[in-house]
UniProtKB/TrEMBL annotation:
Domain of life: Bacteria
TM ranges: 12-29
Keyword annotations: Membrane, Transmembrane, Transmembrane helix
Official protein name in the record: DUF6090 family protein
Length: 227
């Protein structure tokens, strides 16, 4: 009886051991599957962010090119006015674009999806920090602070002054002529407005360049993470 009891006990312990091992294996498989799902989800969201960032990079370049052009045109008018140069038809487009600038329309959809899923889905802490900084700081500044300052300048200063001194072409919104070009040469209010436009525009371009540099580095970092 003692021998049989000992055998039954060993058999029972063996069964328990096998059950425990089975449970641990199942748990490990489950954890592995969960980790695999998270990895797939991380790769998917990084690919989406990568695509959006490249689209935003193209938008930033387009903004910089357009705003650089408008700043140069404003400088051309300043040069003619301050150096007492005669009016030229090439200034028609410069006067037409005095109140124009390019607003940044950046893509936030993938980043919003990341926030909904949880930022911790991205394992690399530095990469996660750089992505958050790009959207919450760099993009936020361009699309809110900088663009808002341009709108305020346009509505409070540029529109009231240009409406008094410039006549727009009915056939082209990008063309305009001054009502009295010669009088503008001694109009300090008009010249000061041009200087303010150039200062705002070129300051914005400098910020665009800084963001573009950071954006290029972030896109490269995501490329490495995906590889």
């Amino acid at each position: 009886m003692e021998n049989k009891t000992g055998q039954y006990f060993k058999y029972a312990m063996g069964e328990i051991f096998l059950v425990v091992i089975g449970i641990l294996i199942a748990l490990n498989i489950n954890n592995w599957n969960e980790d695999r799902k998270l990895n797939i989800e991380e790769i998917s969201i990084l690919k989406d962010i990568h695509t959006d960032l490249k689209a935003s990079a193209e938008e930033i370049k387009r903004n910089m090119d357009y705003n650089t052009d408008t700043a140069l045109r404003a400088r051309k008018i300043i040069n003619h006015l301050t150096n007492d140069l005669p009016y030229s038809s090439e200034l028609d487009s410069a006067f037409g674009k005095i109140s124009y600038w390019s607003s940044p329309y950046l893509t936030f959809s993938a980043y919003e999806a990341l926030k909904n899923k949880g930022l911790d889905i991205i394992k690399d802490d530095q990469l996660k920090k750089d992505i958050v900084n790009m959207y919450e700081s760099e993009f936020a500044y361009l699309s809110q602070d900088y663009d808002r300052s341009e709108w305020v300048l346009a509505q409070s200063v540029v529109y009231p002054i240009t409406n008094k001194h410039i006549r727009r072409d009915l056939n082209s919104v990008a063309m305009a002529v001054p009502n009295d070009f010669e009088s503008l040469k001694t109009n300090n209010e008009f010249i000061n407005m041009l200087h303010t436009i150039v200062r705002f525009r070129e300051g914005g371009i400098d910020r665009y360049k800084l963001t573009q540099h950071k954006l290029d580095n972030l896109i490269s970092a995501i490329d490495k993470a995906l590889k």
